[in-house]
Amino acid sequence: MIVLVGFMGAGKTTVGWLLADRLGLPFVDTDLVIEDRERRPIPEIFERDGETAFRDVEQSVVADVLAGPEAVVSLGGGACGRAGTRVVLGAHTVVHLDVSFEEAKQRTAGDADRPMLHRPGLAELHASRREVFDDLADVSVGTDGRRAEAIVLEVLDGVTGHDGVLVAPPGGTYRVHVRAGLLAGVGAQLPTVGMVLVVARAGDPSLSLLTAGMSGAVHVEELPVGPVKDLATYGRLALCAAEIALHPDDLVIAIGDEAVVDVAGFLAATYNRGIRWAVVPRSLETLVDSSLGGEVALDLPQARDLLGAVHQPIAVFSDPEGISPVTDPRFGAGLAEAVKTALVADPGDLELAVTSAPAVLAGDVGAVAALVRRAVATKARIVTADEREAAGRLHLNYGHTFSHAFEQVLERDGEALPLGLMAAAQLARRLGLLDDAGVELHRTALRAFGLPTAHRFTLAELMPLWLRDNKFKNGVRFVLLHGPGRPEAGVPADDDALTGALDDLAEDR
Fold first, then answer.
1. What distance separates the 2 farthest-apart alpha carbons in the chain?
2. Which of 39, 183, 221, 287 has its CA 20 to 30 A from that of 483?
């Protein structure tokens, strides 16, 4: 249980509804339960029976609610005055929404449904209750002059701990834990379940570390090297889930590269109408990008990512140890994802990334961890604000319209995204959006990591591939930059501009 306490006007009901929605839990307001049980409003109970009788009913209701199913619960301002209630609260997470007396008066002025509002000595009552709330609270959040959404994010940050980066979209709240050496402790951090389906590449050395300490029966399904984001692999995993009787309260764990995460996540999103899942990324590309945000997809022969869903995990465990250019064949693609995220959202991160490039390329664990943490923090902020690509999350597709097509032409698809970023910069310059300095910034950052910035493509080979791009709308459309940190989505481009940009990409020096 997460129990919200606070003085009148603290915002318990508003914050409670929003918090419950973010956590996927029901919201229970004990004042409403009291009125339903008594079949009369609280002011009438106070007037006819007196405060002591009301508190007796309230204590009973609070005890019943806190013994019931998991929920976000809001208590009346005086409920914590009873010793019995305080004892019961000790087994739950208590959040104090702290409101000043002046703010509380302003918010509740004229509210006839609050019988305590006209009590003498209200300021003293506020002070005494505040002491009780502070003593009980596991988390205390100030509410004066703040929007409810900002308060909810701070509450989430408090109740989910401080280890890792908080991701809090409407579809589910979780943390991305970024730390070298954390793999050995993952099993102990997972919820107690009846069955765990682990999906990983055959022979993944992480498996033995991860399965140690897991509760419940553990079934490992190993996938072969090569493409696995397809209907055949998905069907195999779905049949496996049915065979072992996987239920919505059980758990799928995806361990590995982006393809493994996508197919396991798609299974979790669709099997039994959705099942809990966790991610253990084992490539740089997955560490910095595809492990968080909940976007999962399968490829069809006609194009990639045509079947997709958004299904948030319950946790992400990102251990950069052992991830290097030697061990990770798509290390360059991961570097390009980190560059992309910084170009779109935080140019300051780009400067830090370029400075760290020699250490990252040498496989320094600390440098890789710092690069991952910065990218994760930026993407977490964007996904929290826009889960389903209605606005800011669209910008994370920067370079992807080019790179998704490039992947189907190149023999080495790990080079597709850096070339896609460079092509997007060249197109933005052709359209008058980006100046020469902006193009040079792309070039410098990519080359610092040893990534390619030039290749010959033709419009004729790319256009058929763009017809199935999910951003195709009366023609192909792009995310482009007006400058570092200034993206725009849905930008059209005519054939002349595209041909010119591809020529520039081929001749880039």
1. 86
2. 287
Tell me the three state secondary structure of residue 74: strand
Give the Cα separation of 339 and 269 in Å (integer).
Answer: 29
Contact 104, 98 (CB under 8 A): no
Q: Kindly report the CA angle at 221 between 219 and 226, in degrees rounded to 5? A: 165
Residues 6+ apart with CB under 8 A from 242: none
Average pLDDT, the chain: 91
Which SS3 state, helix, strand or coil, does residue 116 take? helix
pLDDT score of 261: 97
Contact assessment for residue 156 and residue 168, using Cβ atoms and an 8 Å cutoff: yes
Question: Which residue in 91, 92, 280, 250 sits closest to 178, CA to CA?
Answer: 280
Question: Which positions ≥6 away from 445 have C-beta within 8 Å?
Answer: 339, 342, 343, 350, 353, 354
Which residue, chain included where needed, has tokens 């032409």? Answer: 409
Phi/psi for 421 (5° steps) reads -65, -40
Cβ neighbors of 507 (< 8 A, separation 6 or more) are 454
Q: Is 176 exposed, middle or buried (0-12, 13-18, 19+ CB in 10 A)?
A: buried
Which residue positions in the chain have pLDDT lower than 50? Answer: none
Tokens of 454: 């030039």
Which of 355, 354, 350 minimizes the C-alpha distance to 374?
A: 350
The DSSP output letter for 288 is I
| Percentage of the chain lying above the pLDDT 90 cut | 67
pTM of the model: 0.77
Q: Residue 283: what are its φ and ψ, rounded to 5°?
A: -140, 155
The span from the CA of 176 to the CA of 316, in Å, is 5
Sequence-separated (6 or more) residues with CB below 8 Å from residue 119:
125
Structure tokens at 265: 């996540």
